[in-house]
Structure formats: C-alpha cells, structure tokens
Amino acid sequence: MRVADSWVDYVLIDCSDGDRLESWGKYTMVRPDPQVIWKTEKNNKLWFNADAVYHRSKTGGGHWEFNSRLPESWQLKYKDLIFNVKNMGFKHMGIFPEQAVNWDYTRALIEKSDRQLKVLNLFAYTGGATVSALKAGASVVHVDASKGMVQWAKENAASSGVADRPVRWIVDDCVKFVQREIRRGNKYDIIIMDPPSYGRGPNGEVWKVENEVYPLVELCSQVLSDDPVMFLINSYTTGLSPAVMEYILGSTVKRKFGGHVSSDEIGLRARESGLVLPCGSSAIWEK
To answer: What is this structure's pTM?
Structure first.
C-alpha cells in the first residue's frame, strides 16, 4: 500500500466503529468511513470533543453537528501547496488527503521530464492534482462537470501561487469533452482520472464506474501523445480492485504504447495505532 505520510496540517488521529477522528489544521472532525468496521477503544478524548461531527442518516445523506464556531473555510498546507477546505454536505472537506501520494508521483515524473508536459485531469474536483502538476511545471486542462468545484479549484490554484500558469478550466461532461478533443486532434502526455462510483447526467443518464471505466480509458487512449508519460486511474469503488484497473490499463494503454502498469491501494496512517486505513485504489501506466 502507498501511504500518504508527508502531511503536517492533516492528521488521521484514530479510526473506530465506522468513523474517523481527524485534525484538519487546528480543527478536529469526526466523519463516517464505511471501511472502518473494527470497534477498537476510543481512548482519545477528542472523539467526544471534536469541533464538528458528521452524522449519517439511515435514509441517506446526513448532517454536520458543530460543537465549536468554525470559519466558513480555512487553509491546509501540503508541502508547497495550499488548499482551501470547508465542511461540505455529505461529509466531505474539499480534498482527499490520501491523494497526496498520487500528487507526489505525478509531480516527480513531470519534474524529471526534459519537456513541458501536457496534463489532462478528468473528474478533477477541487484541483489537488491540477495544482500539483502546475507547480511542477506542466500545463493542465482541468475538467469537471460541477461549476462550483471548478471555481474552488481556481481558488486553490491562486492560494498555491499557480493561477498564472498554463491551465484551462473546463466545466463539462468528461466523456463529451474527450470526444471533442479527439475530433480537434488535441493530445496529452499525462492523463489523470478519478471517476465517481455512481452518478446521473443532466438527461437522467446513469453512470456506474464498473460499466463505464473501460470504454472511457479506451476513449482517452486516443488523446495520448505519441510519447506519453503516464495514465493514472483512481477509484473509491470497492468493487473496482487495483488488479482490475491494472488489467484495464494493460489491455488498452500498455498494448498500444508499451511501458508497464502497477496498482495498489492508497491509505492514511492512524496516529493512535500506527496502522494504515485503506482509502481507495490507484493503477498507473508509465512509459
């Protein structure tokens, strides 16, 4: 497992009985996590005195209970990157700290390249991978269907000092955008995607990642450059294992361009126990 161990501002303090206890800067949160099926003792007093607790509803969704007055948003630093975080609906905070391992991996490839690489970031959310790639010197096309998330990503770019770097902010359906890029003849050296497990389009179209990820990767392989560097898929869907994603990249991108594919879980280390909480999976094709 690849573990995001380089955080200072974020800490997974403990995890037990379906919940995480975390610090986000100077604020502590209790948030649900379906992976946490063990029931170890909650010895840390912050379990019962956190600044905010997210309560899941049995009928879906949930709500935040605030025990302290929190700002509308605040900043979290990762190395030389600065992100704006806040308590969102459905338990989220605006970034996924475990993704730092993928930011670092991508950034290392960009920094060692002898040319400016073009990155396509699909389902790009609030731009963690975008900001990191810009900081490393790449040009980026950031695509997400949510206007609010793209605006948030712009704010993260500004906070990290990369708003003036070569980046295009696109609010669009990712599949339709890639189809247009194929017709336009645009190419990319690196593709990053973090597709949702489930969703519905504006016309009621159903997206299930298990059904859609393979044709999407096939489609995206058509916008890779003649000398591509990396293709990364991340997933939080438990049914989409690292090995499955590795096989998808191996039977599409590797077959076309050679190179090699690796895959693994990604996770966060709990400070109290020293054990690692699995937080999703990634597969990486690399030339």
So the answer is: 0.94
